[in-house]
Amino acid sequence: LAGRELRHVPTIVEVGDIKIGGDEVVVIAGPCAIENEEIFIETALKVKEAGAKILRGGAFKPRTSPYAFQGLEEDGLKIMAAGREATGMKIVTEVVDTRDVELVASYVDIIQIGARNMQNFRLLHEVGMTKKPVLLKRGLSATIEEWLMASEYIMAAGNPNIILCERGIRTYETATRNTIDLSAIPVVKESSHLPIIVDPSHATGTWKYVPALSKGAVATGADGLIIEVHSDPAAALCDGPQSLRPSKFAQLMKELEPVARAV
Ligand code: PEP
Ligand code: MN
Q: Whose atoms come closest to the Cα of 57: which ligand?
């Protein structure tokens, strides 16, 4: 179902009046995790002003250490909804457990499946049973074919509204958190009709590298970007080192315009 053989025209995933996979590059931005309402709304207003269309933020965080901040759970979802209320933006958050799919779907506009759950087939099936758009991240060490097969699980359950997200893969290189695979963009476009966006924040792990790779992703044909932004990265409870300050994010949004026009 994800292949080009059955469907030749690109899929455009509609989130309200936002179209992902069309002519425009859609930018999703916000903090890694939702920490409190004040910081979240403040950041939300700033990324909106800079031109982001969709707000991100984690309420259920899949952390490497069980002792790290795990997210505010339903309280985080409530804060997200307040962010949507305050800005008029759409919202996306990750779900990590089949038991929470209904709850998360009741709050957000897009459900995110994180890299660590790309092959959690029961979870894929469960989000496939909803009609909500799904942001499907590429697994830490997943091939493009495995990733497309994961999207197949969601589609086979009845939900065709999938946005693929390249977020860097594990390689031998340690200079960046992951290695961004920009080749995935033309390869996916060749074999699938699904839209593909890029997450330069998790791909690089370093805010300084985010602008260059964002522009590279757009130049390579990405349908959008998902970028971590935090008003005070040093104080962030999660992924501060890869988060852009709002002012740097606004500057990047300006620099992206001519790149997007040129593709
Ligand atoms: C995230 O987007 O916050 C996240 C955890 O990303 P990934 O699943 O790509 O590591
Ligand atoms: Mn993160």
A: 1
